[in-house]
Design goal:
Helix content is 20%, strand content 30%. The chain contains 11 helices and 23 strands. Strands 13, 14, 15, 16, 17, 18, 19, 20, 21, 22 and 23 form an 11-stranded mixed beta sheet that branches. Strands 2-3-5-4-6-7-9-10-11-12 form a 10-stranded mixed beta sheet, with helices on both faces. A two-stranded antiparallel ribbon has the order 1-8. The radius of gyration is 24 Å and the shape is globular.
Length: 557
């Protein structure tokens, strides 16, 4: 039975929109829609450059345009090179610097443009904003990158967390295969249980009749530089409103961008942050799991409600930095949501009142059993302690969500995963006081393995009084030698409510989100017989494995 593949072709162009074919410097024509060209006078322009069909409901730019044009902005939306109605080679994360510059230059020459341009959008169309920053076009005055990051590119198999080597992110690889094969996109179910794993994708390419060059770069381990200009960190600073999701699967990398730019004087002066309790697809913690009434990808009423918080902050930001009708100090430098509590503001992030605290992994001999497992203690044990967990390629630990782009749509209970006998679990006691997490989290583990290469996956979960366990943050690392492994879990704003406890889970796999380790020096893509292994965790005074959190003082609320 052949693989079922659904081809996604462009949706119709709205009748009230004019599409232009904009010429790039090499002659390629990029399909570009203009909303609001009839505002009556030249106006600032907001540009979005997307690979997902500019006219699809998925990107909902017809709805976004209503909000921007009502506030006096022209909105320009473009299919990037090689996608949908645009010409050129289909290879993501290449060519966006020059194409961004040339598109901005075209905008500034139009009669409806006042010569001032901002950019807006999520994920890949956050990356196209950073590419335009790299181009250093003088008309680009502000950007609003949402749930995205700077340090990703063709052939890069995992997002950059700053913690060293990472396991291959299979979701990102599947994205390359489905989106970056040709002008259209393709939906198909990848049988990731096949061996070798690469055969599952080969079946899809055979059914499509074409290959994804980006996929081949990942499997071949051939990363390409995403910028043919300066890295955005080294480019001319422009005002940035970072829109981060605490539950976004790119959140670790996005916050790394924010923290890195905060160290650079020119950039620090023009950085702003909004951090919400959302995942990559803009589902909210307070609505999780989604219902038909709150599922904006399925219902128009829910979409309208979501777009208020989606577009509103960007319009406020552009009113300051594109129109100049409000002062910069009218915007809080940091707006962040404390999960289960609400919005707060601050002049900086992390917050000046937040403090680092460490919880040490103790009583590991109980960590292989059912919850509560071992302890997360305030002090390390007096004597060395240890525990083992196994990695079994024939019995992989399930991921926190089958699709982490939609982490909060289902917001699944992970209690059955915590109770597996191939993971380690450490918990805090329940408290009668709330615990507010506000800042970065890390796990520092002392690990060795029977295999020459091994993966370590960590999840921090909220263990409720009814026994359910739901994700707060997660991270992973790949190692090829014994010793200390530091795993970035990202930043968060989250209230652990009274009666709840924290649970730290350690595992050797995370499937289907990540490519299973071969357990040998053989390629994990090509192996037909991945090898099982055992990992040994050490803790105690000499090897203090620990969880490092950033917490707010207890104000007695």
């Amino acid at each position: 039975m052949s693989l079922a593949v659904q081809r996604i072709t462009p949706e119709p162009i709205p009748p009230h929109v004019r599409q232009h074919m904009v010429r790039m410097r090499d002659g390629a024509l990029l399909a570009t829609d203009v909303y609001g060209a009839d505002l009556g006078a030249p106006a600032p322009t907001v540009l979005a450059r997307v690979p997902y069909d500019k006219n699809s409901r998925y990107v909902f730019f017809d709805k976004i345009a209503e909000r921007f044009t009502a506030r006096g902005y022209v909105l320009v939306v473009q299919d990037v090179r090689g996608k949908f109605r645009s010409q050129g080679q289909t290879l993501g994360w290449t060519g966006e610097v020059d194409d961004g510059y040339d598109t901005i230059e075209w905008i500034t020459r139009q009669s409806w443009s006042d010569g001032i341009v901002g950019m807006f959008g999520d994920s890949y169309y956050g990356f196209t904003q950073w590419s335009a920053v790299s181009s250093q076009h003088p008309a680009l005055r502000a950007i609003v990158p949402r749930v995205t990051c700077t340090n990703i590119g063709p052939g890069i198999a995992s997002y950059d967390t700053g913690s060293g080597p990472q396991p291959v992110w299979l979701e990102g690889t599947t994205y390359q295969a489905q989106v970056w094969t040709d002008n259209d996109s393709y939906e198909f179910d990848v049988d990731l249980g096949r061996r070798p794993v690469v055969a599952a994708y080969e079946e899809a390419f055979t059914a499509i009749g074409k290959r994804s060059p980006g996929f081949d770069l990942i499997v071949g381990g051939i990363p390409l530089a995403p910028y043919n200009g300066p890295h955005p960190y080294s480019a001319r600073p422009v005002p940035v409103l970072h829109c981060v999701g605490w539950f976004d699967n790119l959140g670790i990398s996005h916050m790394r961008d924010y923290m890195e730019l905060a160290k650079r004087p020119g950039w620090a002066a023009v950085q702003y942050l909004i951090a919400d309790t959302i995942d990559h697809e803009n589902y909210f913690l307070e609505d999780a799991p989604a219902t038909p009434e709150t599922d904006h990808l399925a219902g128009d009423a829910a979409l309208e409600r979501m777009l208020d918080s989606y577009a509103g902050p960007a319009i406020e930001f552009f009113d300051v930095f594109l129109k100049g009708i409000a002062a910069p100090d009218s915007l809080p430098r940091v707006r962040w949501k404390l999960g289960h509590e609400g919005w707060r503001t601050s002049a900086t992030w992390p917050l000046p009142e937040a403090t680092a605290t460490e919880l040490y992994l103790a009583e590991p001999e109980a960590a292989n059993g059912a919850v509560p497992g071992g302890q997360l203690a305030l002090c390390p044990a007096d004597a060395p302690e240890s525990a083992e967990w196994r990695y079994d390629p024939d019995d992989l630990v399930p991921s926190a969500a089958a699709d982490t782009f939609l982490q909060l749509r289902d917001h699944v209970d992970e209690r059955t995963t915590l109770d597996r006998d191939d993971v380690l679990v450490f918990t805090t006691p329940a408290s009668d006081r709330p615990l507010d997490l506000a800042g970065p989290a890390h796990a520092v583990l002392h690990v060795e393995s029977t295999a020459p290469t091994f993966d370590v996956f960590v999840r921090l979960l909220d263990l409720a009084q009814d026994g359910t366990a739901r994700l707060i943050v997660r991270g992973c690392a790949q190692a090829d030698r014994p010793g200390e492994v530091e795993i970035a879990l990202g930043h968060t704003g989250y209230r652990v409510r009274p009666g709840h406890r924290l649970a730290l889970m350690i595992a050797g796999s995370d499937f289907p989100n990540h490519l299973p380790n071969s357990g040998s020096l053989e390629s994990p893509w090509l192996t037909t017989a991945p090898k099982a292994s055992r990992q040994h965790l050490r803790t105690g005074p000499v090897c203090p494995s620990r969880l490092r959190l950033t917490v707010l003082p207890d104000r007695g609320e």
